[in-house]
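Meet today's protein:

…
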Amino acid sequence: MSQAALAGDPFSEAPAVPREKLEEIFDDIKGHILYDHELHGCLNCGICTATCPSAHYYDYSPREIVQLLWTENLEGIHDAMQEKIWACAQCYTCAARCPFENSPGGLVMIMREVAIKHEMESAKQVLRPFSRVLLKVISTGNQLAPNMITREAFPDWGPNVSKVDAPLNILRKAIPVPTLHTIDTAWVVNLKTSVELYTIWEATGVLDQLESVDENLFDVVTDVMDEKREEYQDWLDDQDEDDDA
């Protein structure tokens, strides 16, 4: 392949990305069902960046994202997908302030989906720490439970970390709501609800994306799903027997 067919930073040690690959990535972004709803033009006014919380702390600019997509800067788009798009907090302040009614946050979400689809290393690195949270959702229907709050997980709490050492078992039992009497889950989720959640993930391609990012986690998730579905089917069978009795 000729050098003209490649694109990349001449000062970077990373291999150049073929032009065809850059075009494929952009086509997937532009072909997203929400793309035309999120991008309408750009005055380059900078209001989105001025009001963006992430822009104050990270090398991230909503205006840059819009400009890259609006001008179809394929190399810049690919570069932004390696790190910058993961700095967005998805607060959508940018969308609320843009005079063109653009949604940089929505565009970032599309770019993240495409990064996962193309199995970019940036997506794998960013999503890897969330594996414990995902397993919690799969197994209990909760994103976070009291027993997940530890000193090691929240080193930036400072003096407030002392609250983590509180007798959680006793405190949870003191809460009058019955579903809060455990530290293993934030609340009790109905088995049917869990099965329905899994089914939605299957139908919408979430599990396919998970497999491309973390195959081992995908295997664990599918095993848990199979057990949940068997458990739910056994419950349905018991209900039918009771009705027949």
